[in-house]
Amino acid sequence: MKIKVLAASVALFCLNSGTALADTSLNDYIDQSIGNSYRIKSLMSQHDVEKIRLEQEDKYYLPSFKIDHTTKTHMEDGRDEVGIDPWDNRGHESNVNLRSNIWRDNHSDVYSMLESKADASGMNVEIEKSNIRAQVTTSVYNIFLYESLIREGEDILKTAKKIDADIRNKVKGGLAKASDRTTAEVLITDMENAILATKLKIKQLRLNLEQVSGIPYPEDMKMDIAAVDALIGKTKIGDINNNKSLRKKALEVQAANKSIDTADNWISVDLYAKTKAEDLTFNRTDSEVGIMVTMDIFNPTNYWKEKTATSQYMSEQYLLDQMREDMKLSLESQLSILDSNRRLLDSQEDSIKIKKDLIKERQNEYQINVTSLYELIQAWNGYYLAIQQKTDTEATLVNTMLSIDVLTGEI
């Protein structure tokens, strides 16, 4: 029994340890950000309001039930006296009314209009979720890229400090000039400043990200370069037809179109039942059940409603057309930026390879006193600058690709 208890305790410890040590994935962080968004909660509540209105229209036939009671007192106004009859002489009347609208000719139009409005309201939620996904993904990927740049800088800084230590020994032994030591210190200072500037950029990215997500950036964020490469190397690009803002506007246009038909209601049919009693005991009653057909032959209010709804529909349609054209131009612009930066990235990668080879050559030449320390330091500076430029280009590609995904509704 003790062995079983011990085994269970060990298993529980391992489970808890595994949970504690588990890295936070990007999807987990996005889900937490969406879950903590009060704006999304507000939009979801507004969506619920529209769905309730739709349900109300769907159940338009539900009857209304009313009871009213009236006590009537007859005033006496004769030649001899003016007064009120005693209580026993007062009249009482009670009415029980039940009414249900069993059919009206604009029900399907009203339902379709409210359905489009509810769907448009639901798209607001999806649009906000997409915006959060895009902003969080952009910031997380950029943080990862600049953290990688810092690691490159720290490796170069270690090399610079080794060079500095070697130069100091050579200066002491009279094998190098004092200016060589200063040159090595310049490389160290430049790298320290570059690393500090990148750390400040990461700090700003984290602050912006936490404003979007509403939660601190996890230190154990799990990310690898493969995810970034997959995004910036993506070749399959959609079109704007799936853009969520465009789809929302199309639903609003549908609702505006249907509102034209809802402006008038020519015929409605009501089922009613009522009971009338003339005393408090309901002993004397008059009951009836009937069907009432109402025909709205001419109503100026409906005419003006229809004209207003038609103009509103045209306005919404023009806005949809303009939005579609704007998004087409925006997508073309982003695709052009994407293509230019991809070609730039290829060129920068080739440049980095050349500069890396140059460093090896300079190091070998420096060892045999063929080249100066200054030229070696310049090679290292040029190499880091190339990596820095490549990182900036990758960050631009991430921003551009995610902007395209938002435009095409793929995120």
TrEMBL record:
Compartments it resides in: Cell outer membrane
GO molecular function, one term: porin activity
SUPFAM superfamilies on file: Outer membrane efflux proteins (OEP)
Main localization, broad class: membrane
Signal sequence interval, chain numbering: 1-22
GO CC aspect terms: cell outer membrane; efflux pump complex
Record carries keyword Nuclease: no
Keywords: Cell outer membrane, Membrane, Signal, Transmembrane, Transmembrane beta strand
Gene3D superfamilies the record matches: Outer membrane efflux proteins (OEP)
Protein name, per record: TolC family protein
Lineage: Bacteria, Pseudomonadati, Pseudomonadota, Gammaproteobacteria, Vibrionales
